[in-house]
Amino acid sequence: MSKKVLEVENLVFNYPDGTNALDGLSLSIEKGKKIAILGANGAGKSTLFLHLNGILKPKQGNIKFRGKKISYKKKELQNLRKNIGIVFQDPDMQLFSSSVFQEISFGPLNLGLSEIQTRERVDEAMQIMEITDIKDKPTHLLSYGQKKRISIADILAMKPELIIFDEPTVWLDPKHSKEILGFINQINKKGTTVILSTHDVDLAYQWADYIYIFSDGKIIGEGSSEKIFRDNKLLKESDLIKPWIIEVYEKLIQNGRISSNVSVPKSKSELFELI
C-alpha cells in the first residue's frame, strides 16, 4: 500500500495577468511526515497550496489525494477540503465569526454534523490549542497570537488528514513561535501530515523530515535537511543561507575540533554534546 497521501504531477498555472506561477511542478507527500517548503516570495508556494484543496484549478497537470485524481465537482471538493486544511499566514483572512466558539463551530456544522458532535470537536480543538478560556470572546478583540491559535483550531475541528501551514510563525515573537510549533508537532504526532512554508532556515533544518526548495514555480531542490543545507550550490542558487547549527559544525571540523565523520547535529543539544 502506497504511503503517499498527496501527489502533484506536472502542475502548470498562469494568473490572468500572464504571471507563470507554477511551471511543471511535481512533488509527493508521504503520510504522517513533516514537510517544509522554502523559497522567495513569488516562488509559487502559496499558489500551490491553493491548488491542493481545490481553490485554484491548474491549467495543466494533476493532483492526486490518496491515489485518486481530485475532482472539481462541488461535493468532491467539499470532501477534499474536509481532509486537506489550510491555515493561512494572516489569521484575519480566515476568521469571520463573532465569537471564538462560533468561529470554530462553522466547519463542523458545514460538514453536516449535529450540534453535539460539533461541540465535541470544538471543545477538543480548543483544548489542543489551549484557548478554552476565551471561547466566548469576540474574535476581533483578540491578540494576533490568539487569532493564530483560533485559525489552527478552525482546521483541527474538521479533523483533516493533512494540514498546510503558510508561514505559521511570521510576525510572532520567539516565545509564541515556539508555542505554535509545539502545537504543530503535537498535531503531527497524532498522525496528521503537515506541510509548512517558511523563510526560516533554522526552523526548516531542525523541524522537517523532508524539504522542497521552490523557485519561479519550479522545484530546484529536494531532500533531507542535511542534504539540502550542505549543498552550497543549491543554497546559492536559491538565495538561502545555512542554518547556524551547520555553520558551527563545519567550523568545528575546519578548526580540527571534531572529525568530519561525526554526524551532523540536528538540534542545539546535539551540537552542545559535540562541543
What does this structure look like?
This is ABC transporter ATP-binding protein. Residues 6-241 form the ABC transporter domain. Its main location: membrane. It comes from Halanaerobium congolense. One of its GO terms (cellular component) is ATP-binding cassette (ABC) transporter complex. With 275 residues, the chain is α/β, with parallel strands linked by helices. The chain folds into two domains: 4-239, 3-Layer(aba) Sandwich (Rossmann fold); 243-274, no CATH class. Helix content is 40%, strand content 22%. It has helices at 45-52, 74-83, 100-110, 115-129, 144-156, 174-189, 201-207, 225-229, 232-237, 244-254, 268-274, and strands spanning 4-14, 20-30, 34-38, 60-65, 68-69, 84-87, 162-166, 193-197, 210-215, 218-223. It has a six-stranded mixed β-sheet with strand order 6-7-8-3-9-10, sandwiched between helices. A four-stranded antiparallel β-sheet has the order 2-1-4-5, with helices on one face. Helix 3 crosses helix 4, helix 3 (100-110) runs parallel beside helix 5 and helix 4 crosses helix 5 (144-156). The longest helix is centred in the middle third of the chain and has 16 residues, at 174-189.
